[in-house]
Amino acid sequence: MQNLLSNLGDTATPFLAIDVDVMDRNLSGMAEGARQRGLVMRPHAKTHKVPEIARRQMELGAAGLTLATVGEAEVFASAGFNDLFIAYPIWATPARGARLRALTERVIIRVGIDSIEGAQELGRALSGTGLEVMVEVDSGHHRSGAQPEAAGAVAVAAARAGLNVAGVFTFPGHGYAPGGRDRAAKDEAEALARAAAAVERAGIAAPIRSGGSTPTVAMADTTVLTEMRPGVYVFNDAQQVELGSCAWSDIALTAVSTVVSRSGQTIVLDAGSKVLGADQPLWVTGGGRLPDFPQARVVALSEHHATVRIPDSVPTPSRGDIVRIAPNHVCSAVNLADELVVTKNGIIIDQWVVAARGANT
Amino acid sequence: MQNLLSNLGDTATPFLAIDVDVMDRNLSGMAEGARQRGLVMRPHAKTHKVPEIARRQMELGAAGLTLATVGEAEVFASAGFNDLFIAYPIWATPARGARLRALTERVIIRVGIDSIEGAQELGRALSGTGLEVMVEVDSGHHRSGAQPEAAGAVAVAAARAGLNVAGVFTFPGHGYAPGGRDRAAKDEAEALARAAAAVERAGIAAPIRSGGSTPTVAMADTTVLTEMRPGVYVFNDAQQVELGSCAWSDIALTAVSTVVSRSGQTIVLDAGSKVLGADQPLWVTGGGRLPDFPQARVVALSEHHATVRIPDSVPTPSRGDIVRIAPNHVCSAVNLADELVVTKNGIIIDQWVVAARGANT
Q1: Over the stretch B68-123, which tens digit does the pLDDT of each residue have?
Q2: How close A296 gets to chain B, by Cα (Å)?
Q3: Are both B133 and B145 inside the same structural domain?
Q4: CA distance B35 to chain A (A)
Q5: Which of A135, A354, B65, B178 sits a CA distance of 20 to 30 A from A49?
């Protein structure tokens, strides 16, 4: 990390820095894994929101991008990406419907629905435009998504509303828990298989069965899934390490921060929740992790302070020292930054604009 | 709330909306309370980051503004505010020192220090500029801040480094806990009294004794404190209601969101942690609250989903309905938005730019 600073110059902390070699290794490893297993890669761009990174994902064989909002899709369509899936149960108000219609005229666009009502509302705005829909099903995360057996009725409603059904998808978010990854991957495959069967029983083809999150992608059932949508893997984060889905050496993004206060073995960094995000599920060890001090714990996080306890046996950084901290949830951290600083071999080489930051609608 | 929508038009959810009448009542109530108790008001602008709101605070008698970062101070100095206190233990690298020096040439500026080393570092960059410093002390939150008895030595170091000592300050952040407000307010007064005495024993005047956070300001000890720095009160939020420091009718900012999915009494809103922030201390009831459904609970929050359980006895909103949700911590929510929509009597009347959003350095 000391190397990272060799040309830090006037760059004020705190800021988010990418180690581009680690990122490229993460990108190519995931792409290669998908290829070997015969799965289509459609990485979720909500994690990075950066066209330069999406371009690398496409060069490595991704079929297209996954987005969370129409706003994100608009940003990436404008940046030249032409095969986009909004993996979200769209509620097509007239205004949102008009924006989607405009997108269908520029790029291949596919959106999620999870109810008959949602399909009908979408059909009113988008009937006959060639818009493809994917039926979202709940595989155990109990967020959005129809029950798998209900996917047939939703698909029928979509077809009757003049939309093209492309398949089914799920997000096995309950894999974000210690020991939960295998179970969630099994649930994912089972839900997708049941949903696809329900759609096909209704006389509609469901060729695409899309799943996959960074924690569960390694155990995705390739006898069912055709496509995967991991997002976090590009950077990884503290909670992925604590879940066991990556190692410290796979962390490609950290907040570069300064020690501003110290009391014994307790230091305070200037990167707080307005830089890292405040995500802290009950099972994590604290408000982030310090890759260079794996035994340290972030015992408190406020807007501009990370309070870090360093074990007695470890030399403690002094006031003014530069320390890097990995956020618990990198998607939240990136969405707080206007730019990401790009580093390679300890040198700042570039800065990328977080083009879709705040594109929440 | 239905009124809020009377001219919603094409405004896409989710977005943050201010009820300006509630906000103005919050502003004038706090200003009047400070006046009656003889306390100087220096509201923390990190909550709103909006010059239009800071202007109202000044018109109501605030002596100046409190900020968290040099970057926020630069934004507000450029917006015409000329008496600014950065309530943070500044570590003055040469670059940050140069920015502070530029500020001293434009406005009255005051910053925090909490160590001898910090005072010396600051003196190297700012000696003789007239910069005022406030010694930060720990009153029990155990974040930054010197021990009260050490304030004298820090003040002496600052004076020797060519800085003007103005007083002492603390943030009684441990008042953010159920039943913790009274204790924290007592601790605050005791720490400030001890710190001011330590500074004065060292032969340096400490006329300003600054404290106060929204939860503790009502019980601030006016025999010790001369100044208070509440921030959240302008909008209030779900955790303030749950702490008992405000009522539902005092909530001036909510995320206006759409029901995108529903399963029985469980609904999913399109406002998630990328709109509300992910702050969720262990003692809150969930990921935010719905002011119009006080019995409902936000049982899960992900980036673009709030999963809300509505009690069986309460009519449940349908897909497509508009529902407002109060964030747990409004400072985090505002920092995610580029603009705040201003409403009055259920009509959208304006839009304010969050001018200091992301000004973290």
Answers
A1: 999 999 999 999 999 999 999 999 999 999 999 999 999 999 999 999 999 999 99
A2: 16
A3: yes
A4: 29
A5: A135
